[in-house]
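fyi for ur records
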Amino acid sequence: MSNVRKMPGNACRYYVAGRCNYHERLNPGYDESLRCRFLVQCEDAFDAFLDRAEAFALSQEQTVAFWNRRFQRLQEEGCFCPDYCYSEDGGDQGCVHGYGDVCILALPKCEGRCRRFVLIPEVSDNNDYKES
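which gave:
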């Protein structure tokens, strides 16, 4: 008996680092379980920070300076997510697993070519997309 395997899905429009981004692209933000835990917690921390800054009547410049330092520390510590890996070019959250506001690790694994497979459009020499 031969061992039949699925073709890989790495040429699919929805393929992201071995994961399938179909449902998130179909309805962005609908499935909150895909959101980056670090960003969700940072948003909560930011809201609390703004309340404190307002209570202390800080100026806008002071508030921005304090938050930038606080956010930098949060990124370096990665304390809100056990999978957080700090990276200079890691997107908004500074994490290598970040893909916009989605955590790549929360996406389902790509099982290979499936019925939702859509070939990535090629880019021509003049940077116009064309369907293959």
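The first strand starts at residue 15 and ends at 16. thats all i got for now
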